[in-house]
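Hi P.,

Sorry for the delay on this. The queue was packed all week, but I finally got your sequence through. Input first:
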Amino acid sequence: MADEQDKKPLKKKSNHDPGRRRFLKGVGIAGAGAALVDHLTLSTDAKTESATADTGAKPVTRNVNIILDVNGQKRTVSVEPRTTLLNALRNNLDKPLTGPKLVCDMGTCGACTVLMDGKPVYSCLVLAVDAVGKKLTTVEGLGTPESMNSVQAAFVEHDALMCGFCTPGFVTTISAYLKKNPNPTLEEVREACKGNFCRCGTYPRVFEAALAAAKKS
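Then the structure:
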């Protein structure tokens, strides 16, 4: 009897957990479903592109016509609703205004600063359509090479510029600040300029120019 029992095959323990099998099965089904959706989506996109190519149709871009009050003039401009004020000024106006500079395009450097109703704003963060009805002033509207305002003249006298990319933003910011505080301290000027950055490191001369301009205002 003992020999017969020894000859019986031993049952192997299963390493498969039913719960684990169901989980893996579900993952497989989900993966197959996602692959099918991707395939259908690609097929639809391909058909759309093919149809567009066959008919010669172009993607529709709907511009809006707006009027911007810039430097005391009403300027009509056609832009996409997503166009920033900076791009509208530099690229969409019939006679572009290139004083505000496109540098970081993230609202961190201040090179694109313009005045909106007298307050400095980053024009790369403002939509052109949101500037309708506002009084806008760029560095071009503060003065000309023949007739500079006090801040522009002080920047020249104190050599407060190097590469020039940050200069329009500083001039615009300081011009607005001196109207609010015509007799600032060095600390107040530094605080007013904290939203503008100069990669060339001409901060000391920028601040000197601001204080000199304040005395002449």
